[in-house]
Amino acid sequence: MSEKKLTASAKILNLLAEKYPSKESIYEKIIHLQSQLKLPKYTEHFMSDIHGEYDGFFHIINNCSGVIREKVDKVFSLKLTSEERAEFCTLIYYPDEKLEQIDESNRNSSEWLIKIISQLLELSKAMSYKYSASQLRNCIPHRYESVIVELMSTRPESDGSQLAYHSELLKTIVDIDSATDFIKAFTVLIKRLAVAHLHFVGDFFDRGGRPDSILNLLMQQRSVDIQWGNHDMLWIGAALGSEVCIAGVVRNSLHYGNTDVLERGYGISLRPLTIFANEIYPDAEPIKSIERAITVIMFKLEGQLIKRNPDFQMNNRLLLDKIDFKTNTVTIDGKKYPLNTDHFPTIDKDSKNPYKLTTDEHKIIDDLKQYFQESALLQQHVDYLYKNGNIYNRYNGNLLFHACVPMNEDGTFRELKFGGEIYSGRDYFDYSQQRARAAYFNREPYGLDFMYFLWCGRISVTAGREMKTFERTFIDDQSTWVETSDPYFKLIDNEEICIKILNEFDLDPEKGHIINGHVPVQVRKGENPVKGNGKALVIDGGFNKTYHKKTGISGYTLISNSRGLRLLQHQKIADVRTALKENRDIESVSNAVEIQNYRTTIGDTDLGLKIKEDLKDLQNLLNAYKNGILKPTK
Questions:
Q1: Averaged pLDDT, 146-153
Q2: Helix, strand or coil for residue 427?
Q3: How far apart are CA 409 and CA 416, in angstroms?
Q4: 514-516 and 536-538 as β-strands: parallel, antiparallel, unpaired?
């Protein structure tokens, strides 16, 4: 072994010795870690393309995508009627609201409270088998930990004294008026036991009205990772100060009719823009005039960005300079198309630079920029997205990303040049991630431009299609609206292509899967979210209401547990009011994607690999103590 490696090993041993100063402390840790490797793998949930649909997301998070209902049915199928089980589930999902409802109906007797706590305890015990004692403690709300651990440890069925002790614990909880607090604590525990880790494969923003509320709720979850989507990149770029991203965010919010998220959610005022728009478009509907004003500003800023970044290959979006104002037409690919308006008051028609902002437009964008950068909640959300997010993730053998791996029609990885360097496949993902992080940490101009490219670039890993924003806004001929997509979206039907991609990211194609969203699966037309003979899963099921007619469903949740993969296809999601009033739940169809005849254990996961590395270091420290290389301090 080299001298450098010896030095490094000695440093590791000395650091470990500070934490484990005796052989006995090492024995204890090794026993816990080694045995943990044999526990069943924890449950992971994957979701994608929430698009601001807070009500549905709120219900999915609270019922853990139907897992809690499955557990309740399994534990209480012979003890409770279907109506009783439905009400019990609603109590778990919405304890505050349901307890208030129970209180108003005078049903909260001491007997009822003891019965409910007993049932919650029984369900918690049944769901805790995947967890070690220390992990279980970490799932319990801290303030109630000691009592709940005591309840979980009692065995009233085996001994009279234990029964008396158990009964007194429950009776005392009720007698001192702490029952509702413990009921709520148990519901938190049950939700944490149901889902150990959440994966979100991009796009929290746009279309739906309250992505801010979704992120507030998500920040309360214990274990989350995020793969950024193109809509997320646009909002993050705006929060970081990219003027063109700001214009894009405001334009989208107006277009989708959800300006509440700007004004009420993030405190971003549209008043100066509204006054400006009403002055230059006095004959248009107020909302349409505001959207038109910010859209023109966006196209101007976008044109400036495209010209200074030829590597983005976005010249097809440079159309303001292709307008013939005399004939009111625009030339695209050598063909002229009539425009649906001749009113462009902020474009200097005699100028050779239609992409130059007017003085008033400069003031509007400067004002909006200040609002975006000073929004404390938006900045907090962006910090969270960066702390927990990436362009892609390799997790327990699976590859997670939002949109696509840019490819050629023949199935080879597309080579792309940025800054004189060629990137493709995984290297291109790493480069994109580097640029996105540089935008966040350094606010560098090129990084901020790259955020807009990630939003709508045809060769972007988070977009992967040629957006036709100008055409859809100003041209009625729908033949110009067709948005060409990357070959990836068709190629993943081929198992060999999926294997190639998994190999590119150093993942085992026998066990791994590609998991992405971005493109809504049109179940209504017979499309299948499972691609490449099960190697790829597209889990965008149109969660947002605007997609429901297109997809025919209300979204997907992919569930990975110790027995394999299941895809839940949500048919209808009850709103909170209906759920409370009628004890309604999500109507979902469960489809097995991959069922194993064996249990995956913690030892087979990424956590297992880390535990094995820790065990190796601990064993080396133990040997150092035994051989006298290091002296225990206790």
A1: 92
A2: helix
A3: 15
A4: parallel
Q: Which of 399, 395, 409, 408 is nearest to 429 (CA)?
A: 399
Tell me the two tokens of residue 604.
Answer: 């087979």
| Residue 541 neighbours by CB under 8 Å, 6+ apart | 520, 521, 523, 529, 551, 553, 554, 555, 556, 569, 570
pLDDT digits (tens, 9 = 90+) for 198-252: 999 999 998 888 999 999 999 999 899 999 999 999 999 999 999 999 999 999 9
Four-residue CA torsion sign, 514, 519, 522, 527: negative
Q: How far from 380 is each of 255, 442, 473, 510, 615, CA to CA, in Å?
A: 25, 17, 33, 40, 37
Instruction: Kindly state the tokens that stand for 205.
Output: 């923003």
Rounded to the nearest 5°, which phi and psi values hold at 73?
-60, -40
Tokens of 499: 């294997």
Residue for token digits 């069925």?
A: 157
Range 320-352 burial, b when 16+ CB lie within 10 A, else e: beebeeeeebbebeeeebebeeeebebbeeeee
| E strand segments, 556-610 | 556-561, 564-572, 587-595
| DSSP secondary structure code for residue 585 in this structure | -
Q: Which residue has the tokens 């090492």?
A: 26
How many angstroms separate the CA atoms of 526 and 513, rounded?
22
Rounded to the nearest 10 degrees, the angle between the axes of helix 445-456 and helix 230-239 is 150
Q: Is the separation of the CB atoms in 543 and 520 below 8 Å? A: no
CB 169 within 8 A of CB 147: yes
Neighbours of 426 (CB within 10 A): 18
Q: Which two tokens stand for residue 184?
A: 């709520």
Between these two residues, 412 and 633, which has the higher pLDDT value?
412
Interval 74-133: pLDDT, tens? 999 999 999 999 999 999 999 999 999 888 888 889 999 999 999 999 999 999 988 888
**Contact indicator for 50, 517 with CB cutoff of 8 Å:** no
> Are residues 68 and 92 in contact, defined by beta-carbon separation less than 8 angstroms?
yes
Contact 224, 44 (CB under 8 A): no
In sequence order, the 6+-apart residues with CB closer than 8 A to the CB of 521 are: 527, 528, 529, 538, 540, 541, 542, 551, 556
Single pTM value for the model? 0.91
Among 303, 347, 304, 307, residue whose Cα is nearest residue 325:
347
